[in-house]
Amino acid sequence: MNFRIGSGYDVHQLVSDRKLILGGVTISHEKGLKGHSDADVIVHAVCDAMLGGAGLGDIGEHFPDSDPSFKGISSLVLMAHCRHLLQEKGYEVGNIDGTVFAQAPRISPYKKAMEENLARAAGVSVDRVNIKATTTEGLGFEGRGEGIGAHAVVLLQKLVQES
Ligand SMILES: Nc1ccn([C@@H]2O[C@H](COP(=O)(O)O)[C@@H](O)[C@H]2O)c(=O)n1
Ligand SMILES: C[C@@]1(CO)OP(=O)(O)OP(=O)(O)OC[C@H]1O
């Protein structure tokens, strides 16, 4: 198979005593996301899409939250590891499309920096990464500012064998 596709979804709770890190960018906000790692919800969704596309399970299976070595870790480090797992299966990232569901803060000023960080971790050029954001029009847990959700789709392509 030359191509495979994966999807990922994640949610983290917004709490007062944490930094808000999205796509590897620290964003000034009164609350941050709670988690064992840096709780970078969009990177987690991308990791799950990478792993799912390759038939490699999910992020919690590879990086359990019971493991102290992952406490506070940058999720971009976990994503770079996912890239190596894909390589071992003979795949590389084709493109990444992700969506952040957040009533606040405004994500658009940070999208470019997020795309650059994700591209670096995936080992692809930045034109292969797209990050979108949407409010939920005040509805649901994201709309009430209780948490942030993220969804991602990742295309995987077969690595070209060098002759
Ligand atoms: N946290 C967010 C949410 C949305 N945006 C940008 O606003 C535009 C409109 O969003 P809707 O809620 O009406 O879908 C859209 O272009 C989003 O990129 C944002 O920057 N931060
Ligand atoms: C990333 C990991 C690992 O530190 O922890 P969290 O930051 O809590 O994130 P989550 O999306 O709940 O699950 C994956 C985890 O095992």
Question: CATH class, please?
Answer: Alpha Beta
Strand order of the largest sheet: 4-1-7-5-6
Spell out which ligands are present: the ligand Nc1ccn([C@@H]2O[C@H](COP(=O)(O)O)[C@@H](O)[C@H]2O)c(=O)n1, 2C-methyl-D-erythritol 2,4-cyclodiphosphate
Query: Structural class, please?
Result: alpha+beta
CATH third-level topology: 60s Ribosomal Protein L30, Chain: A
Strand content: 25-35%
Estimate nothing, just give the exact number of structural domains. 1
Could you name the ranges where pLDDT drops below 50 across 5 or more consecutive residues?
none
* Main beta-sheet strand count, sense and barrel state: 5 strands, mixed
Please state the overall shape, judged from the principal axes of the Cα atoms. globular
Plain-language structure description:
It catalyses: 4-CDP-2-C-methyl-D-erythritol 2-phosphate = 2-C-methyl-D-erythritol 2,4-cyclic diphosphate + CMP. Belongs to the IspF family. The protein is built from five helices and seven strands; from the N terminus they run ββββαααβαβαβ. With 163 residues, it is an alpha+beta fold. The strands form two sheets. Strands 4-1-7-5-6 form a five-stranded mixed beta sheet. The protein has a two-stranded antiparallel sheet with strand order 2-3. A hairpin with a 2-residue loop joins strand 2 and strand 3. The longest helix is centred in the middle third of the chain and has 14 residues. The structure holds the ligand Nc1ccn([C@@H]2O[C@H](COP(=O)(O)O)[C@@H](O)[C@H]2O)c(=O)n1 and 2C-methyl-D-erythritol 2,4-cyclodiphosphate.
